[in-house]
Automatic annotation (TrEMBL):
This is Lipoprotein. It comes from the Bacteria. It comes from Cystobacter ferrugineus. Residues 144-196 are annotated as: Disordered.
């Protein structure tokens, strides 16, 4: 090889090395704050879209929508304040969860997001591009493993409601704690767990 070829090779190798080093992880859009062994809060960071939806997918395949409203649409989420102004109990028997927070620039229907998330539940990572949603949307994925025992956190929510056949017509109560999708696709109603 000539000197010229060596020089070109070194420049190309150096450029590739710099490109790999420059790829940093994107900044977190939200954080998960543990309040106990199985209780958490989700806190949006600055600079996110004003609306959000929050879902969890457990190791056992149970999908829960934790931000339910009468209209079954995304809610307003303020930076630095806990989502839904609530703490959430994660069922220990369902194992580790992945929490998905969908930030959007407009209010979006939650039912279609739940169904799409159910279809993508086996993927280790999802992005906003994996979903058919209107407007500008970004997704934050967080993980948490609940542990047995520990003190109970008062007023923590662990909810589930029946998944209606017609999501558009669903009119759950304003303070309904969440929606649960069973792994087999069958929905059932379960009462909220008592706060100790």
């Amino acid at each position: 090889m000539t000197r010229w070829m060596w020089a070109v090779t070194l420049v190309v190798m150096g450029g590739l090395g710099c490109q790999q080093e420059q790829k940093a992880a994107p900044p977190a859009r939200a954080e998960i704050r543990a309040l106990g062994n199985a209780t958490v809060e989700f806190i949006p960071k600055e600079g996110q879209h004003p609306y959000c939806l929050l879902y969890t997918v457990s190791e056992k395949g149970v999908i829960r929508q934790l931000t339910m409203t009468r209209e079954n649409r995304s809610i307003r989420c303020e930076p630095g304040k806990r989502i839904y102004n609530s703490s959430f109990r994660i069922p220990v028997e369902e194992g580790k969860i992945r929490a998905y927070i969908f930030f959007s620039d407009q209010r979006i229907q939650a039912g279609s997001v739940a169904q799409q998330l159910y279809d993508l539940r086996d993927r280790p990572r999802v992005t906003a591009m994996d979903f058919r949603l209107p407007g500008s949307v970004s997704v934050e994925q967080l993980e948490f493993t609940p542990q047995p025992g520990g003190p109970a956190v008062p007023d923590a929510v662990e909810g589930s409601t029946e998944l209606p056949d017609n999501t558009e017509a669903a009119q759950p109560a304003d303070e309904e704690p969440g929606m649960q999708l069973e792994p087999q696709g069958n929905a059932r109603t379960t009462p909220p767990a008592p706060a100790n």
